[in-house]
Every structure is written in structure tokens, then in C-alpha cells.
């Protein structure tokens, strides 16, 4: 099948690279978000999808707003004979004139089991909510976000130690395994699909700056879920010795001492440190980042800061 690919971040690039290895799939062109400034130098950096496309000598199109530039986009895309557009984490909404233009329309890979968690952060939100299962939904693209008919669903198990990075890897692999068989071989009509039950829809939004602030009065499992939902890219933070402390990785602990003081630190040995949550249970700290410092293990944190049982997270 002849396709065009729309995507931007690293998971999208992994799917694109997998599609390029399949002899029965011809990627004719790629659409990705514009290069963005990065670091203190503000050097423009291409998206992972652009890098993968250029490495494969594929035509690449970038639009600040494909909705505002749809006439130009349609003109450029019409020079190719792609039968289907494949979208995975492109980062911009495609206008109907664009997604309906190929012979078989457009399909989208979404990182949840629709109609649950429609929106911008399904992977993070599934962790935040403490799900034990999520998955990938392949759907026809429609005018309203994530409301298209479902072509295929593949479930993914969520382990207690998963964070957004590891769960995204699982979901990306599930997407690769699901979409490639659909695109191989000859096709005469669009994919058969089942309408969603819109009455069961739930929604999620982009993670905001205030979501990173950790409420230490929450139960331990809720705090653990928030921290792993924010890792490995954002991190949740609290205060330690009047400075910001980012918590990157934790795990639930069975330790208990009967006294409840949320934020209280408990040093177990030279390599283990716990903090107490609002329900009296403790989380073991595995990775932190003190203000103006690099991310470090808890062993390095203990050695560098001389932690005692009198210390607190605030």
C-alpha cells in the first residue's frame, strides 16, 4: 500500500522506521511539525520523525498550521498518489479536506482503549489514574478529536514500575504490531470499523505546570502514580530545605511505624530513603534532582546531603 506518514516525536519515528522496513508498504512522503529551538543556544532542531524521513531520503513537509495552510498542503500532497494517510502523534489537527483526500482516508493511532481517554495525554493519564491496563486504538480520522470509528484495538498491561517512557515504548510496539498487517497487501476499500460508544467517552488534557506540584498529603499510591506519570520528561516536585526537589522515580514500601507526618523522611540504610505520604504509608525514593543539580540516585543524594530523620519534604 502507498501511504503518507504524519508524526513528530520519537515514538512516531519508531513506527515510521518500522514501516520503512516492510516491502509491501511504500511511504511516499512525511509530514511533521516545524523544527523547534532547543537549549540555551535556541538552535533549531528537527523532530525525530524528520530525521528518520531524511535518512530514508523521503520528501518532508512542515507546517506551522496545516489548518491555515490546507490549500498549500493539498496542492503539495496531490503530487503523490498515497492511498492512505497514517497519523501517530503528529501534534496538530488535520482539516477534513486533508484527512479525507486519500482513496482510503486517514487512520490514527491513539494511545488508549477508546472511547476512554480521548485527548492529548492518554499515556500519562492512564498512569496518573492508576490503570493496570491500557492499549492502542487504530481509528479512522474524523472531524472531532478521537471520535472516529475503531478499526482495531490491542491491549497493553501496565506494571507498577512503568512510567510514561516505558509505557509509551509498550504502546508504540503494540502500534507497530497492529498497523503493519493492516497496511500490507492489496486493498479495494477502506478498513471496516465499529463506531465508538460516545456515551462512555472520557477525556484527558495536556499536562500543565501546576500538575507537577506534589501534594504530600495524598495516599502513597496516588503520589507514586503521579510521579511516574510525570517521568521521565517532567518530574513531580516538592520542597526540600527551602529549595525545589524533583522526584523522578519511586516505589511503594511496606515500611510502617504508626506515626503520620506527610513528607517525613526515613533513612533505612546507606542506600535507601523513604518519605511518608498522607495515608501513613511510605514511598521509597529511587531518583531525585535537587535544585540546580543533575538527576541523581538516592545513594548519591544520601551521601551528598547527609539526610537525617529530622529532614522533611514540604
From TrEMBL:
EC code(s) of this entry: 2.1.2.9
Keyword Transferase among record annotations: yes
Alphabetized CDD domains for the sequence: FMT_core_Met-tRNA-FMT_N (cd08646), Met_tRNA_FMT_C (cd08704)
InterPro entries: Fmt, Formyl_trans_C, Formyl_trans_C_sf, Formyl_transf_N, Formyl_transf_N_sf, Formyl_transferase-like_C_sf, Met-tRNA-FMT_C, Met-tRNA-FMT_N
One cellular component term from this protein's GO annotations in UniProt: cytosol
Entry keyword annotation includes Transferase: yes
Domain of life: Bacteria
Physiological role: Attaches a formyl group to the free amino group of methionyl-tRNA(fMet). The formyl group appears to play a dual role in the initiator identity of N-formylmethionyl-tRNA by promoting its recognition by IF2 and preventing the misappropriation of this tRNA by the elongation apparatus.
Entry protein name: Methionyl-tRNA formyltransferase
Annotated source species: Leptospira sarikeiensis
